[in-house]
Every structure is written in C-alpha cells, then in structure tokens.
Amino acid sequence: MRKNLHVKLVLILVLLIVSLMVVVGAFLMNSVTGYYINEFYSQMVDAFGQVDFVRDLQTATEDEDGGAAMAAVLSVYKGELGVDGRNRNYYVLSGTTGRYLEGSAPEPEGGVTITPNISSALLGEMGVESSVTADYMDAAVPITRGGQPYIVYILDNRETVRSLNGEMFGLILEALVLGLIISVLLSFLLAKTMVNPLQRLTNGIEEVARGDFSRKLEVTSSDEIGQLTESFNAMAQQLETNIAELERAEQMRKDFVANVSHELRTPLTNIKSYAETLAGGVGELPAEMEQRFLGVILNESDRMTHILQDLLTLSRFDSGRSELRLTRFPFAQAVDDTYQAILMDAQNHAHTVELKLPPDLPQVRADRERIMQVMMNIVSNAIKYTPDGGRIVLSAGRAGDRVWMEVDDNGIGIPAGDRGRIFERFYRVDKARSRQSGGTGLGLSIAQEIMHRHEGSLYLVDKEEPGLTIRMELPVQGPREEGGHEG
Ligand code: ADP
User: Fold this and answer.
1) What span, in angstroms and rounded, lies between the C-alpha atoms of 173 and 29?
2) Which end of the chain is more exposed for a tag (fewer CB within 10 A), N or C?
3) CA–CA separation, 129 vs 192, rounded Å?
4) What's the mean per-residue pLDDT of the chain?
5) Is the beta carbon of 383 within 6 A of some atom in ligand 1?
6) Residue 448 Cα, ligand 1 centroid: separation in angstroms?
7) Is the pLDDT reported for residue 346 higher than 90?
8) What is the pLDDT of residues 291-328, one digit of tens each?
9) What's the rounded mean pLDDT across residues 419-428?
10) CB of 70 closer than 6 A to ligand 1?
C-alpha cells in the first residue's frame, strides 16, 4: 500500500508542478510577445507622429536621390525607431512597386517581401498591423517626397523577443526541474504524515484479524486519520468485549449442560439400582426393606421433578416467556406469612426465629407469589445451612422508594472465595450437604432473576462471622419496564 500511495502522491505533485509551469510559462511568453509588439507599434506611432521627422522625410532638395536622402533622414532618427541594423531595419521602398531603394541593411535576397502592411502602404494607407503568431512585425508608411511616392518600411524579425522567450523557457525548465525535486522530497514528507499512520492502522487491523486485540493504536493526530484510528481502537475494544462475553456465555452454556446432566444422573442412578434390586428379589425381600426402597425411589423422583421444575422456571425467564403477575399487597404481610410458614421447620431444627417488622411498611406492587418464593428460598437456606439450635433473624424495612427484607443466621456461612458465585446456576459450596437437604443449587439464581425482573436486588451483606446475612430489595412502585401485567 505504501508504494501505491507514495507513487500516487509523487504523480499528483509532478502533474501539478508541470501543469502549473506550462500554464505560467505559456502565459508569460505570450505576454512578453504581446508587450513587445505593442511597444513596437507605439514606438512607430510616436516616431511618425513627430512633425519634424515627417517633414524631414517629405521635404526634397533639388536634384536629389529621393531614396538616399530619405535613408539619411531615417538614419538620424534611428534611435526613435529602435533600429539597430541587426534585428530591426529601415528600408525606403518605391511607392509604386514596393521595390527596395535604400535601407539600413542591404536588399534581402529575392527582394523585400510584400507584406499586408506594404500592400496597404502601396494603396496610400499606413500599414501598422501584426499578428502575434507571425515571425516578424513591420510598419509601412507611405511618404510623398518631391512628388514621388515612397514607402518607409520598418521590419523587425522578432529575434529579440525570441531570444528573450528562449531564455525564459530555459528559466522555466530550470524551475520545473527544481519543482520536481521539491515535489519528490515533499512526497516523502507527506508519505510520512499520511502513509505511515495508514500503514500502522493496516498493521493493527491485520493483528485484530488474527485475533490479537491487545495492542492499542497510538493516535498521533486529530485529523481524519486520527479519528479513524480512534474509531478503530473503539471498535477493537468493543469486539474484544463482545468476544469475551460470547466465550463466557459459551462456557456457561457448556457448564450448564454438564451440570444438568450430572444433577439428573445421580437420582436416576439411585432409582435404577433400587428398582433393579426390587425387581430381582420380588417376594424375597423383607416387606419393610421393600417399603424403604420404594421410599427412596419416590424421593429421588421428587428430586428430579424439583430440578426439572426449577430448570423450566429458569428457561421461561431466559426466553422472556414468564410474565410477572403484578398486584398490590402489604409487604409486611408477605414477610409475616413467610415467617409463619417456616416456623414449624425451624422449630424441628431447634432454631430460634426472630421477626423484626416495623409497623408502617407500605403496600408494594409486585408478583406476590414470586416474591414469596424468594423469601421462602432465603429463609429455608438459613434453616438448612445453620446447625440445629441456631438463631435466625428476619427483619424488614423501608429505604426511600424501596422496601427490604434481611435474613440473618449464625450458621456455617460462606467462605470468602465462594461468596461471589453462589448466585450462579448449580453453584453450591458443599454439594453433598446441599443435595442431602434436597437443594438443587438453582434456588438463589432463580431468586435473583425474580428480583431483577422486579428491578430489585438480592445480595449478600458483609458481616462478622459466623453465619450469613442476605438481603432482598424491591421498589415500592414495582418495575417501571413492564415485565408483566396487573393481575
Ligand atoms: P441450594 O438448593 O443448594 O440451597 P441455593 O441456590 O439456594 O441452592 O444456594 C446455593 C448455595 O449457597 C448453597 O448450596 C449453599 O452452599 C450456599 N448458601 C445459601 N444460603 C446459605 C446460608 N444461609 N448459609 C450458608 N450457605 C448458604
């Protein structure tokens, strides 16, 4: 690319210089010629306008050779006529035939050429016309002397202007060569400021095309190339983020599939082995053992149903098919209902449960069933992950246009390294313990999804060991972006 653009730059500059020089040269040379012609004729008009000069030409003496006498007069006025005897000469011609009589130069070979101006003079008119293109200029003035017609003829071969133009041409050529050298040097400079950034950009693009986003291109100017570089950097950055996101999503998808398979395989294996044992020993096993095996099979089937239900819920959220059924209900009532619902379970584990409800909690606009699902999930987690005889505190309140509920326990808590991940699908700190207590590892990710749908939030609150505090927050007016309909 560098070569092409560089060659183009040189070509453009060369063309520019050449055309400029040609135009300027032609104009200059033309105006020099024009000036010279004008100068010649104004000189002639001035000279022949002089009364003395014309009178001297016309006044004859007796027995004279008219032609020689006139030539003598003309010789005196040489200066006024600009006659130098080389490039410009005067001639005295016969007024009837135009034949050479006398002159500052000898008669040209083959006689004086009868030009249009001489023809005019032969007819008695002053001939002072010339074209720019002719290679001579002349003036022919009819003069009567001693009753005889003569023509005073001034002929200039334009050698002066030709040599002047020749010199000018040489000068223009020199300027042209100089201009060409400058243009080549300039093209290098231009190439440095234009081609190099483009080259860098090209290299950068090639790197991105190879999948390397690490290098940011330096923006060295604020012109179009600079803007292009900036846009390119922004694009590469965006691309990098998008690809990283895609890779993350792809990884999550793979993990998810692996997790689902794993989660379903465990209960299925259990069901299969118990069912096989039962089938193999029909009538041989003690009745209460059969009963126990059937119980396990039922339990495991329930677990599978549970997992599948959770997966279905998540899938509905993911595809946006699950709408919120928004209603207005007292938030305090929902918290109290949750408290009542888990009380029995908590007592079975010898937990003490405390409920701290301020009296003035507002009504909220939300999907009551789903909000209850979130509350139940976090309170039952507190019961599950707190060793028997623990203490659980449910508190609620209002902060600005949001209401909140916190569940605090003094259970096993979550190690710092896992805290960031417990809202991920299937993530469990202690898989065996969770499974034992019927957990799927999906509860909190569903809960968080529900809270996001409500434009609320669900997060862990920092606290001193032991145990865990988890907090949900909900906007009182419900989600602004309608994720559902009023029910
Ligand atoms: P699970 O069905 O396993 O309870 P969740 O999504 O509800 O799944 O919770 C994810 C994980 O977070 C649990 O497996 C557990 O390790 C941890 N966890 C949740 N709540 C608590 C808590 N109150 N105390 C300690 N660990 C908890």
Assistant:
1) 13
2) N
3) 57
4) 89
5) no
6) 13
7) yes
8) 999 999 999 999 899 889 989 988 888 887 778 899 99
9) 88
10) no
